[in-house]
């Protein structure tokens, strides 16, 4: 398997984005309940709004989730890449059985 320097850097960013249990919980939550805002995510996972916002930004930065504006509301939705990561983890951990 051959990786370019750019691909290695991207893999590092993904690894860092998923190296926190709260970010993993956010990714799972948004997968299960799309269109949540920062306040709803933070309340559901019992974290402060600023903490939730920072974690969400990290996931957005690597393209695992994206935000969509609906009037004044900002909804967070998992991307195909984010779904792929969750599916890969599920298979690796044999959670689908």
Give a description of the structure.
With about 100 residues, the chain is an alpha+beta fold. It is built from five helices and two strands. Strands 1-2 form a two-stranded antiparallel sheet. α2 (about 20-30) packs across α4 and α3 (about 40-45) packs across α4 (about 50-60). The longest helix has 13 residues, at about 5-15. The radius of gyration is 14 Å and the shape is globular.
SS class: alpha+beta
Unreliable stretches covering 5 or more consecutive residues: none
Mean pLDDT: 93
The outline comes out as: globular
Descriptive tags:
97 residues; alpha+beta; two-stranded antiparallel sheet; 5 helices; 2 strands; 60% helix
Topology (elements, then pairings):
Blueprint: H1 5-17, H2 21-32, H3 38-44, H4 49-61, E1 65-70, E2 73-78, H5 80-92
Antiparallel strand pairs: 1-2
Helix pairs in contact: 2-4, 3-4
Task: Explain briefly what this protein structure is.
By secondary structure, the protein is α+β, with helices and mostly antiparallel strands.
